[in-house]
Amino acid sequence: MNVRRVVPNLRTEDPEACGAFYARIGLSPAMELGWITTLTGTGGGASPVQLSLMTEDLTGPVVPDLSIEVDDVDAAYEELRAAGAELLFPVRDEEWGVRRFFVRDPDGRVVNILGHR
């Protein structure tokens, strides 16, 4: 299983103000779905620079602390389930083109594990 990217998710009540703040340091909207805006920057590495601003999670129980994109969501789910991890949201296909689930890490953070279909 390979990790493709890791994106911090910030809960916000005012995505426009937060977006304007981060625009001042070079981040710009790459995706806007109303409840989530993903900002990107140019960065200098192989992976894109990304940050998501979320007012809620449209179908999930909470706003996750971070999102990790993997190449095999089902393998990640089975690995974490078998290890006894606390699964908060079952594997499902979302209408915006991802397959995902939520899991809690050992420090209590909620992680959205996803892959693009």
TrEMBL record:
All residue ranges annotated as the VOC domain in the record: 2-116
Classification via Gene3D superfamilies: 2,3-Dihydroxybiphenyl 1,2-Dioxygenase, domain 1 (3.10.180.10)
Name of a matching Pfam family: Glyoxalase
Coiled coil: none
Listed name of the protein: Glyoxalase
Organism: Streptomyces albidoflavus
